[in-house]
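Hello again, I could really use a second opinion on something today. I've been staring at a protein lately and its backbone has me curious. Please have a think about how the structure follows from the sequence. I owe you a coffee for this, so here goes:
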Amino acid sequence: METWALLGGRLMGTHILLSLYGISFGFLDDEHSIRELFNRVSEAMGATVLNRFCYKFQPQGVTVVYTLAESHISLHSFPEDGSVAIDCYTCGAMDSKKGAQMFIDYFNPVEISMQEINR
């Protein structure tokens, strides 16, 4: 029996997997600006932030994870490659696509790969 049927056809949430390429090193290595972006994204989505984690790697790279009452948003930047991997999983009526678009607008990538998974 499929998982979907086991849940009675209910959607638990939407998971957006976003890979962005061709981004300026400076955007991807700026911990402060990325943290501010996360604050704007979570606010625009109407998310309830439970916990914020940010780590700046040496010599470059940033990881940010926001735990939400509605699930999570995470980012791992690879400035040396000009790329970033972002996950945005939300449940309920939240629009994770809105958050994904805000990341795309901010980073202004040359190439975008986006997958939407309904769970």
Summary: The first strand starts at residue 13 and ends at 21.
